[in-house]
Amino acid sequence: MPQKDPCQKQACEIQKCLQGTNNYMESKCQAVIQELRKCCARYPKGRSLVCSGFEKEEEEKLTLKPT
Asked: What is the pLDDT of residue 1?
């Protein structure tokens, strides 16, 4: 049986925030998004599927960073 994603709760909270009265406006859900980022930072890369988007975002920032 697969392990439960450790950041699934935070991901669901983002969906609730966006789908609620916030009309999918990401700017109104920044606090909830930040909680997911904090959760993702607590686990090694690849441990949480819901964090994969943040991990990819970080990789892209690093590859675009001028040296």
From this structure: 57
25-51 pLDDT, tens digit per residue, is 999 999 999 999 999 999 998 889 999
Domain carrying residue 42: 5-62
Residue 37 to residues 1, 2, 22, 51, 53: CA-CA distances in angstroms? Answer: 26, 23, 20, 8, 10
The pTM (predicted TM-score) of the whole model is: 0.79
CATH number, domain with residue 16? 1.10.287.1130
Q: How far is CA 48 from the centre of its chain?
A: 10
36 CB-contact burial (10 Å; exposed 0-12 / middle 13-18 / buried 19+): buried
Token pair 């699934």: residue: 8
